[in-house]
């Protein structure tokens, strides 16, 4: 592991940030490759402009407040642990590249995926201000880059003094509060999945929610069957069997992860727990 420091001049397009490079992913020469150019200085702000936390901020505002909130960027290899279960979370994290998974693992090594965190999504907000430690393990599904954001930023006006962008700070804190509220609502949906009576109902709830989100009867499932089986905590053959049952009964059609709902009313009844005469795995 090697560390690279970047000094922040007064010009706002530059920002102070420490970047950690994982030596297993990059050679020594690449580790010290110069990134002090305009393209690299704009890359992270441009990506963050599409993130929920920075919603409503101009590119100039994001560039200017990064010294106040950005701590570091760290690279992780596939299957590498980002944060271990039981650790204290003091920062907020944004996935700049790759994909992470929040998961539980039994003593026998069985892994259950709680959630997937894709590019430009963030995590850590649910325990950032909690006295509890992280209840799950966060691992890289594939090579990933993670931006560390200061948790203290949300408790203080500006840890680095007056930067002249007080309104931008307020927008970020407001976005954070809205995010926490939205996540609380999503937790209710997760509980509904966990308390569903059987696998058939869980699948119907999941597909109906995707239909609602996409506004279309045809859509692509973001989780493949292995991930979806982990999410439902069932064996993959049981999941595939239930999908085939729904297809044979004319409720859905599918090809790999592409789904077409043929009978939305029937699917909605299943999602409400009205299984009728249909059989399935629990």
Short synopsis of the structure:
The chain is an alpha+beta fold and 282 residues long. The protein is built from eight helices and 13 strands.
Topology record:
Blueprint: E1 2-6, E2 17-21, H1 28-31, H2 38-48, H3 59-69, E3 70-76, E4 81-83, E5 91-97, E6 100-105, E7 111-117, E8 122-123, E9 137-140, E10 144-150, H4 166-195, H5 199-214, E11 218-220, H6 225-232, H7 236-248, E12 252-255, E13 258-261, H8 264-271
Parallel strand pairs: 2-3
Antiparallel strand pairs: 1-2, 3-10, 4-9, 5-8, 5-10, 6-7, 6-9, 11-13, 12-13
Helix pairs in contact: 2-3, 5-8, 6-7
Number of domains: 2
Q: Roughly how much helix do the residues carry, as a percent range? A: 25-40%
Number of strands: 13
Do you know the CATH topology of the largest domain?
Answer: Jelly Rolls
**What count of helical segments does DSSP give?**
8
CATH homology-level superfamily of the largest domain = Jelly Rolls
Strand content: 15-25%
Q: Rounded to an integer, what's the Rg over CA atoms?
A: 22 Å
Mass-distribution shape: globular
According to CATH, what is the class of the largest domain? Answer: Mainly Beta
H-E string: EEHHHEEEEEEEEHHEHHEEH
Mean pLDDT: 79
Largest sheet: 6 strands, mixed
Widest sheet: strand ordering: 1-2-3-10-5-8
Distance between the terminal alpha carbons, to the nearest Å?
Answer: 46 Å
CATH architecture of the largest domain, by name, is Sandwich
Low-confidence stretches: 1-40, 278-282
Return the structural class: alpha+beta
């Amino acid at each position: 592991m090697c560390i690279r420091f970047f000094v922040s001049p007064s010009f706002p397009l530059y920002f102070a940030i420490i970047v950690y490079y994982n030596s297993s992913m990059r050679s020594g020469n690449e580790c010290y490759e110069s990134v002090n150019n305009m393209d690299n200085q704009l890359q992270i702000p441009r990506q963050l402009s599409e993130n929920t936390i920075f919603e409503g901020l101009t590119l100039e505002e994001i560039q200017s407040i990064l010294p106040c909130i950005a701590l570091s960027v760290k690279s992780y290899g596939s299957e590498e642990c980002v944060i271990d279960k039981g650790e204290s979370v003091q920062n907020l994290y944004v996935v700049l590249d790759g994909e992470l998974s929040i998961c539980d693992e039994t003593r026998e090594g069985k892994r259950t995926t709680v959630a997937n965190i894709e590019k430009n999504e963030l995590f850590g907000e649910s325990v950032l201000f909690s006295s509890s430690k992280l209840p799950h393990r966060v691992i890289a599904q594939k090579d990933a880059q993670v931006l560390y954001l200061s948790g203290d930023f949300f408790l203080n006006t500006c840890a680095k003094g007056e930067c002249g962008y007080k309104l931008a700070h307020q927008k970020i804190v407001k976005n954070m509060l809205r995010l926490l509220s939205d996540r609380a609502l999503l937790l209710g949906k997760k509980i509904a999945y966990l308390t569903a009576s059987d696998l058939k109902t869980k699948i119907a709830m999941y597909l109906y929610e995707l239909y609602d989100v996409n506004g279309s009867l045809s859509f692509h499932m973001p989780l493949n069957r292995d991930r979806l089986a982990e999410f439902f905590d069932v064996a993959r053959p049981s999941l595939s069997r239930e999908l085939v049952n729904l297809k044979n009964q004319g409720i859905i059609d599918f090809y790999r992860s592409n789904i077409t709902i043929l009978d939305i009313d029937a699917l909605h009844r299943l999602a409400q727990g009205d299984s009728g005469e249909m059989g399935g795995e629990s």
